[in-house]
Amino acid sequence: MDRRGFLGFAAALAGSLMLPQAVFGQRRSRRINPGNFQGENYGWSPNPDARQTFIQSQAMPFLRQQNTLIEGSGAGKKALWYRMYEKVTKGPLIPHEQGIGDCVSHGFGLGVDFLTCHQIEILKKRERWVTKCATEAIYGLSRVEVGKQRNSYSDGSTGVWAAEAISTYGILLRQKYKDFDFTTYDPEVAKQFGAKGLPDVLEPLAKEHPVQTVALVNSWEECRDAIYNGHMVAMCSNLGFGQFGASRDSQGFLRRSRRPWYHCMFLGAMDDESDRPGALAINSWGPKSVVGPKRHDQPDGSFWIDAENIDNAMKQGDSIAMSAYVGYPRVDVPSYVIW
User: What is the bridge-based pairing of β-strands 246-247 and 290-291?
Assistant: First the structure.
């Protein structure tokens, strides 16, 4: 966001960003193709030109180019990273509940949260958990600073835009920065950032915490291996799985429906050791978006997707694996004894 845009944004804001009821001008959030189902939002926009730009701008845009050592490592294995997330954050995983068509930012934001937990718990890096990612920042950066959609109040983003946003511009958290309060998700803030971009004053703060490695994932096997090794995957595709409130089958899966979703979801687990391999989608429609049987203690708002459908989604060419997040260093305070 340039200076003129920021001044206009600040005037419209009138100091109300810290309030959940903030309204920007006359433009209100709208749901994307909600049908009759409360809570159903989408927001992934396939963009072949953006994909080609990403491929040309990256030295190694594909996962298979970046790490051949992990190839095949997830075969016959299982990784349930939501358990790790709940251990590090000391609480249950509560699914996001998007208010506009900003699903891409929610899929990537949760992916970075899982990366943080993986680096703390599995890689034993000297980092600390602070709080969740501010998805509004990812959304604005992906659409405006990367996608050049300035002054467009239509909803939606792409996987490659979000990948470049988190790797080039970085991450903000759900906390206060100067006069901005991201403690609670606000779809109106996401809407405004999606049209005007992230305010310039916040960009240097975000750039201190980039995701250093992003790559396109092209198959179930690549997705499986990436997740198994802690490279978190945001799945962007038009695969649909019924309507809001759909019921999982006896194994925790939702079957693919004819009705498409243009949607991004974070994949928080993989299971290739069972007789029905697949990955776990953690949706951003709240805890009641899907009901029915679970397996492996999966969190609310999630469902398993069969491997063949994951493969189909990956082949649509906009799903991203993330790794190497620059998080927040842990500060060890000595234990002093005062006599």
Answer: parallel
11 contact partners, CB below 8 Å, separation of at least 6: none
Extended beta strands in 129-210, E state: 176-177, 180-181
Tokens at residue 7, please?
């001044």
Size (the chain), residues: 339
Contact yes or no for 314/223 (Cβ under 8 A) = yes
Residue 72 to residues 60, 75, 222, 228, 306, Cα–Cα distance (Å): 20, 6, 8, 10, 18
Structure tokens at 265: 């979801």
Dump pLDDT digits (tens) for 197-234.
999 999 999 999 999 999 999 999 999 999 999 999 99
What three-state secondary structure class fits 270? strand
For residue 41, which of 152, 135, 147, 141 has the smallest C-alpha distance? 135
Record the pTM: 0.88
Cα dist. 309→78, 140, 235, 238, 279 in Å? 18, 30, 11, 11, 10
Inter-residue contact 84 to 124 (CB < 8 Å): no
Domains of the chain in sequence order? 45-323 (3.90.70.10)
Distance CA 56, CA 70 (A): 24
Q: What's the sign of the alpha-carbon dihedral 240, 72, 125, 297?
A: positive
Nearest to 279 by CA among 217, 337, 339, 324: 217
Nearest to 269 by CA among 79, 116, 70: 79
Per-residue exposure over 23-62, b if at least 16 CB sit within 10 Å of its own CB, e if not: ebeeeebbbbeeeebebbbbbbbbbeebbebbeeebeebe
pLDDT digits (tens, 9 = 90+) for 156-178: 999 999 999 999 999 999 999 98
Cα–Cα distance between 70 and 136 in angstroms, integer? Answer: 33
**DSSP, residue by residue, 13-80:** HTT-TTSTT---TT-----SS-TT-TT----B---HHHHHHHHHH-SS-BHHHH-GGGTTTTTT-EEE
